[in-house]
Write the structure tokens for this entry.
Amino acid sequence: MPVTPESESTAATLPAEPSAWERVQLARNTARPYMLDYIDKAFTNFVELHGDRHIGDDRSMPGGFAQIGDFKCVVIGHQKGRDTKENLLRNFGSAHPEGYRKALRLMRMGERFNRPIVALIDTPGAFPGIGSEQRNIAEAIAFNLREMMLIKVPIIAVVIGEGGSGGALGIGVANSVMMMENAYYSVISPEGCAAILWKHRKHAPEAAEAMRLTAKDLRNLGIVDHVIPEPEGGAHTDVIASASNLKDAVLSDLKKFSKMSTDELLDQRYGKFRSTGEFLESQV
């Protein structure tokens, strides 16, 4: 993938340790590899499947059978576009209810054929339009959260760019949650947080810092299990190296979880999310 002048400039001006807001900008860089780019570079034998068997197909949530290393798997994820035509086709990476229902259908197929599931998360959030609400977007996401907790094969989730709220979490219940180094994962966008707390989006950089939404912060908080390194300047400066890092990280955890029994897998996944947010206060 060629590096655009915009991405060259971004890479050249980044400090050694980018701020939270700078990482948000990197996560949104349109030159950054998207879900299908990673499938092309890190997976083989991808066969895309379509439709949720209720409403139709959601092109913002591609998925199907693939192979990564020696593992035959099901891979699903959010896909954005790089120009107006593709963004309209992919709905800017914001899935409708049928996208989440298709994802769950494919995960159940993976369970049926004993294939692990890899979810690649990259969305500003689920689509909030009237049609999406009429077709029960909140119910579709909530149903996925419950059902993914019960899937009897290993699930690996990787936040490769934006991890926006329930739209990200709808395919993010996993035995292992990873993040690319310059991705972010948050309950709301920095602009949305700034609009609520400061009444103006110009405070988005301050909000990003306060929200602890970077991979490093979330790893320290125990929400993310692994941080996948990116080349200097961001994943878009060397897509092949970024895909290789992602592949190595996913394979490492697939090897670990493939040795677990079904009960151990389910207990590990349940315990992981039940313990999220636990903390202790010391008495001085």
